[in-house]
Structure prediction request, 193 residues.
Amino acid sequence: MVADLADRAAVRDLATRLADDAPLDAVIHNAGVWSGRAVLPVNIVAPYLLTALLPAPRRLVYLSSGSHYSGRPVLDGVDWQGRTPGSYGDSKLYVTALAAAVARLRPGVLSNAVDPGWVPTRMGGAGAPDDLDLGHVTQEWLATSDDPGALTSGGYWYHQERQEPHPSAGDVAFQDRLLQALERETGVALARG
Prediction:
């Protein structure tokens, strides 16, 4: 299925179409935008809406980035609609916190964030130092493997190694403020349980 993840109506339609099919085993929130007005709509609002609107799969994987360490845990005045260019670092901090919040609020779902590395893609550029062949391995492992490490939740991963994320990502108060801001903005609450 194809959808413009910068367009909330298209994201809602995608969620409806996906929900009408067989239940999903896993969702990898892999879409991302590096710069411009679509950064926040694509990098955090779309994954939030899809998570809130889809029947919960057994596993959720959210694409973060090492850039999340430069993100600011500030929610006042955030332009969720993308009228102005958004901060990539902020968007990746938000999605890392979302993954941790889902792990906490939905104990029956394995929810993790992944830094795929700085890989040579159109977004990463030809000079990116990480191996493109390794860029997808952790996401695939978390979505499909029965390995004990892949059956954990609430982690931040880099090349199948659990890492310590930005302190705000694990801050329950920040997670709750983020979820409240996204609920106010979208009109959709993230169901717990």
